[in-house]
Amino acid sequence: MLFQDLLRLHRLPQTEVALCLHKPSDPIARRSLSMLADERPDLFDIYQSTHAPAPETTLRNRACLASFLAVPGGDVVFLGLFQREIGPVLSINDWLDDPGRREMLDRVDGHIARPEERAARLGGRTLFHLRRHDAFADLEKRLVCQDPGGRTYMRLAETTPLQVLEIRRHGQVAPPMPDWTELTLTRREIQSLPRDWAITLRNWRGIYLIVDEKDGQRYVGSAYGVDNLLGRWQQHTAGDRGVTRELAHRDPATFRFAILELVSPTALPEEVLARENSWKLRLDTRRNGLNGN
Description:
alpha+beta; 7-stranded mixed beta sheet; 11 strands; GIY-YIG_endonuc; GIY-YIG catalytic domain-containing protein; GIY-YIG_endonuc_sf
């Protein structure tokens, strides 16, 4: 079965549909998009409401956009069918003065460039107003197709057959949470965690590492209070400066978080602090890092 068969079932001519296969090469951007698709669909829709010149031309000549996002394993997940209306051309100020657009730039590409830099390259794009097609709403995040390959992400439906692989019972785009030994998160990812990731981190207490990717400096901390690791990391990323004395002059936008060790939920505070001190000694973050105590 092909996705095109579903279009035919709903009497939508393939020649009116553009296939938008979102698959950024940057793995951080791809994971951020999957989290936004689940937790902040408003920001994801902002992301897909403008396009580079060649894809923009394709979409201008189509009445509908079928949106997909690449996921690990070589598949693409269906995110919705939209009727599109051509809107205004966006200026640099349109990008920077709109809170939603600015937040989207920070969440998706903030690890690469600041919103001001990204907006300078995006000025002049046409805004497409996207309205969901109700007939396909039940398949959103559940329909999985095979990635047709290739780098071009805006395709013509009549020339790009999409093989349907499965229709999942529950809709989810974000990948399963990695093992704690492999988990690393940016500030933007912490601010838009999938619900199951957030629940897990809320139940975990332990010793964590912050690396400031701006210069490689490291900070060791511990989490054992309200909301455990989730609560502590959210404190670190809530503002535009770090929350401890050592991090107060640093921008959390360049922080990357990882777990050094998990401790028992019943561990006493003094036991957790002893483990934290052990990691500070082993990583030498007092003399050659950001730990002042």
